[in-house]
Here is the input.
Amino acid sequence: MKFGHFDDEAREYVITTPRTPYPWINYLGTEEFFGLISNTGGGYSFYRDARMRRLTRYRYNNMPIDVGGRYYYINDGGDVWSPSWSPVQADLDFFETRHGLSYTSITGERNNVRVETVHFVPLETNAEVHRVRITNTGDTPKSLKLFSFAEFNLWNAFDDQTNYQRNLSLPEAEVEGSAIYHTTEYRERRNHYAVYGVNSEIAGFDTDRDSFVGLYNGLDAPEAVTEGECRNSMVSGWAAIGSHQVNVELAPGEQRDLVFVLGYLENPPEDKWESPGVVNKEPARALLARFATSGQVDDALAALRTYWDGMLGAYNVDSGDERVDRMVNIWNPYQCMVTFNMSRSASYFETGIGRGMGFRDSNQDLLGFVHLVPERARERILDIAATQFPDGSAYHQYQPLTKRGNDEVGTGFNDDPLWLIEGVAAYIKETGDTAILGEDVPFDNDAEDSGTLFEHLRRSFHHVLHNRGPHGLPLIGRADWNDCLNLNCFSETPGESFQTTENKDGGTAESVFIAGLFVHSAPDYAAMAEMVGEQAEADAARVSASEMSAVVLEHGWDGDWFVRAYDFFGNKVGSAENDEGQIYIEPQGFCVMAGIGVETGEAERALDSVGEILDSDHGIVLLQPAYTSYHIELGEISTYPPGYKENGGIFCHNNPWVAIGETKLGRGDKAFEYWEKIAPAFREDISEVHRLEPYVYAQMIAGKDAPKHGEAKNSWLTGTAAWNFVAITQHIFGVRPEFDGLRVEPILPSHMAELSVSRRCRGAEYRITVGGGESPGVRVDGVPIEGTVIPYATAGETVDVEVSI
Ligand code: BGC
Ligand code: NOJ
Here is the structure.
């Protein structure tokens, strides 16, 4: 069952009912100012950091599920309704939400009044713009009152939700003309404030929440709206909001546009005040002047579209299947951009206060983003590397506002360092910018202690080599990619965080997954060592990698699949010896991607086992059989009910590892089948089962042990986006940048006989067609070449590539 449809021409998903199986959201903003917005107008916005600089309030775990947002109300002669359906939830004669690339427009119509609101963050602007277009679709005049609503958050979202003894005395605001200013804490150390303005005369305003809503009302029936009159309240403590009342007279057929702007402004410390106690509003006035007319809004929307045209032009496929094309050309890169911007901080499943930018996550997000805006990927790499410790280990997370490692989460995830190698390699392959390896980057953000970026990579690589266990496999530390495989935690205290609790000393738990990741990253590391003239280091790295492969085959092979780990006591995890958790997906995917056992048959056997044991109708589950009770020696993984999350859920993040592994074995049908099973556009028809957005991946789909098999959770912010993009574009379609050229080596499913791809890389344009031919091979501008790597062309050139398979 579907709740809308794709409009590929417009690059939109069109939702035709407010009652989706869960709120279906979108993101506004491209660089520094962001908003989350659901199909019924719920959500919030923030500047750079969802925890430290949140503009508007949002209540997670609310009832109804999604109430809180920037809302518009209509009072039509006493009939009160919301064009976004929520929060009033009055029946609408027409409802449609169009989620597009960095904008959302919501249209509601009732009693011949149609209101279409487009929400977006203009490029290079720290503000949301909401253009509210009101049309009288009937044949009698309308006299309406429109009310806006936004509830301000007291900047630090964690404090805002916890520190009421202080916060209820703080809120302050100013009003000037039609602009409402939220100025809480500006009197002391903050140099920033928010503005909420409209390009029209107003009939009234409110800044005090209780005056507007009424202490015992909900947002479905604010007193000012139902009574048809704002109170002109000035907040002083309690809760600050912004509401404008605009009276609108419309003749039959007449239409009127109102432009609302909700923005973030900063003043230099010496220019904080206009006059004693009066906030300097100069930057806000300039902002409002940029969006004073509907024409200016049209221009900004057009610029946003052009921006996306440019980015999406980097990779385009025509596969003959519209579902494939819309994933690859539109929605998957879009999600990659969002994960690059947000990491795992703010979604409808991540509160924006828990997690900043993950070291591991951000490096992986780069893999799907780097071709879109390489310069931003470069900056991100340097930020991430600066949170690495001198011994090569890393802060697990950092806050985007301060770019400092997050002490609350700490360190000890022993896979983290290797992801930096993967991220940097992807960046250099895409851009050829080897100079980045020579950039001076601090360790632990300490300017006194720095090294080149290559030195950071060296410490990453050697961190693994220096931390090995009795079998010669890498020590796992707190956990590896699987945050929930906590082999040194031994946690007995209810509620204790597995991510931060003290580990038990003396353990030698080892990870086969990290071994696979090590072998996978080693050739790139060695190549980068050569780029900086470190031949001996490169040679040694290659030797270490082949030794590690041998160790995996000796101690990490279980007979039919790769073992997952050795626990604290040296017992196998993910082995036929175990009663539960006999086989895990991660080492199968990553060891095969790394090439381990490809020549000797173990790789094929391992992936066959995945197909036989882990695969299901909805994707590949993380492990089997799921754990049915808590295992103190395994940690968080065994806390989840069977079939959810890491305990046997379908972790969409590592399904593509298996798909890529299948391409290594030349099995295009299997690879595509795994890719397609979890691709949202392919699951659109079962939206009532899947429940989350059919245009973006979710982190997890409940596995076969769960009562709700097939139901997704945690959409948007997941490494799934980057890895699926890599799997389909680089391995199945086979177009991937390497250090010395663009490789074109498709491993297609048998039903896909033809394909064309256009790929922009290092400023040149490659037009690639894949099809049958007399003899297999690659022709570049009509000339056959040896192998499948096309030397990079000069920027500005167009290269025609024909591949016969
Ligand atoms: C989740 C993981 C997540 C970790 C870190 C765990 O509860 O299951 O998926 O990575 O928390 O926040
Ligand atoms: C989500 C985390 O963000 C990611 O870093 C981790 O690898 C997976 N969960 C698996 O635990």
Observations:
- Residues 483-484, 499, 636, 645-646 surround beta-D-glucopyranose (ligand 1) (CB under 6 Å).
- The two ends are 38 Å apart (CA to CA).
